[in-house]
Amino acid sequence: MRTEISTLGEFGLIAHLTEGIKLENESSKYGIGDDAAVLSYPSEKQILVTTDLLMEGVHFDLTYVPLKHLGYKSAIVNFSDIYAMNGIPRQITISLALSKRFCVEDIEDFYAGVRLACQQYHVDIVGGDTSSSLTGLAISITCIGEADKDKVVYRSGAKETDLICVSGDLGAAYMGLQLLEREKTVLKGEKDIQPDFSGKEYLLERQLKPEARKDIIEKLAAANIIPSSMMDISDGLSSELLHICKQSNTGCRVYEEHIPIDYQTAVMAEEFNMNLTTCAMNGGEDYELLFTIPIADHEKASQIEGIRFIGHITKPELGYALITRDGKEFELKAQGWNSLKEKE
Ligand SMILES: [Mg+2]
């Protein structure tokens, strides 16, 4: 079924997509339906705002990303940034520019993904806009969240001797992307062959349907731990760690053997003949949390499932060191996943 967007018109389309949306959060005073949404936050809160622009062909490839997944992921990456400030996401606005290639059903799929993410993370959709585009799809999402005034965590707070922690495991989303890219090349022109992803589901899930680490933020709060610095890992561990060190004016020492990597990631790296540590350090799109805690919180933090200690913060003069399994020392460099891709 293909319903042209013009049959609904812009207002009809928005009304259709946002039908049945109920506001869950107290701070969402008024959502869609007027010139602006109205938010009301208590004065003891800090309000966090983050925004993200995703362009077809640059940030996503619709030949292998289903629109529902894209909607889900677009929302999740914004939630992740709010959690990375030790906050709670509460509202989002979604703006889309669509070329003629897209029909009402496509946008329904995209919105279904966004709405699912919002339901699962208790975030309200309070506004948005749609426009036509000459080529492709552009997605702009803004997310608003809150944090207690004294609990916002910045990138700049890391102190010498603090422990460096990472949630979950790294490199799987990047491996999922490699896998999808490979199947796309293999399948070009060969309509009868179905891609074989068995045993690699985790990698695909990490790439196509990532989650934000709400659970870690809640566990840290329950354990009474306020990280000294924090950010989410979207461009790769190396790059994010350098952001923390530079903004905190510190150095760091990270141990290769402690970097958390899933078994499927390791198998895939071998299949692709890629260096596993490089993938985990620079892969990107993991949406895990990277944070530092005072050494005094080590005991409490080690009780929390899903956190790994990968090293510690040092004096700035000591630089950014990666210690390999065989005890060699290298300088950490930010490759980022984009440049990693270009080299291939
Ligand atoms: Mg971030």
UniProtKB/TrEMBL annotation:
It comes from the Bacteria. Keywords: ATP-binding, Kinase, Magnesium, Metal-binding, Nucleotide-binding, Thiamine biosynthesis, Transferase. One of its GO terms (biological process) is thiamine diphosphate biosynthetic process. Pathway: Cofactor biosynthesis; thiamine diphosphate biosynthesis; thiamine diphosphate from thiamine phosphate: step 1/1. Mg(2+) 3 binds at D35, D81, D232. Substrate binds at H59, E285, W337. It catalyses: thiamine phosphate + ATP = thiamine diphosphate + ADP. ATP binds at Y111, G128, D129, R155, S234. Mg(2+) 1 binds at T51, D52, D129. Its EC number is 2.7.4.16. Reaction mechanism of ThiL seems to utilize a direct, inline transfer of the gamma-phosphate of ATP to TMP rather than a phosphorylated enzyme intermediate. Catalyzes the ATP-dependent phosphorylation of thiamine-monophosphate (TMP) to form thiamine-pyrophosphate (TPP), the active form of vitamin B1. NCBIfam families: thiL. Belongs to the thiamine-monophosphate kinase family. This is Thiamine-monophosphate kinase. It comes from Bacteroides pyogenes F0041. The gene is thiL.
